[in-house]
Amino acid sequence: MECPCRLVLDMTAVDTLTVKDADMYVSAANGFAFKDVLDSNRFGTTYEVSVPKGQAKVWVYAGSEDLAGPDGLSIPYGQDCPEIYMHFSEVDASGEYVREDIVLRKNFCTLSILVDEGKSFDHQIAVRGNVSGYDSS
After folding, report:
1. Which residues in 84-93 are b (16+ Cβ under 10 Å) and which e?
2. Pairing between β-strand 5-10 and β-strand 97-101 as defined by DSSP bridges
3. What is this structure's pTM?
């Protein structure tokens, strides 16, 4: 059996004023999966996970309000997207040790479309975004 790779997740860039806790999910070769909930006392330091050598995927997200599922985050139809902060990376874990910086980025916005009710509106409106990581179902 081959020795695992030590995956070190550097949490020092996580903004503790914005993020109070985060969900972490790591997957790797041979169906390996690891989950944990990180509270703010884990930020500002590193976190280690031993993974099988090969490619590993790291998801860290905050503010998901139980929207996480096997295919990412899913926002129920008609509901607003909560204030979500996310990190995703694919890591080459083929060596003995690899370090990955975790940077949680804002992954939501507020969009307001105002239509004057007193005027005729004979247009269609479509909103599209370059969004990855969650689905509107």
Report:
1. bbbbeeebeb
2. parallel
3. 0.74
Exposed, middle or buried: residue 43 (CB in 10 Å: 0-12, 13-18, 19+)?
buried
Q: Which of 43-57, 77-91, 113-127 has the lowest mean pLDDT?
A: 113-127
Q: Which residues contact 79 (CB under 8 A, 6 or more apart)?
A: none
pLDDT tens for 61-77 read 888 766 666 566 777 77
- pLDDT above 60 (res 59): yes
The Cα 136–Cα 134 span in angstroms is 7
One-letter amino acid for residue 18 of the chain: T
Q: What is the spatial distance between Cα 87 and Cα 5, in angstroms, rounded to a whole number?
A: 21
- Sheet containing 54-62: give its strands across: 32-39, 21-28, 54-62, 85-93, 105-106
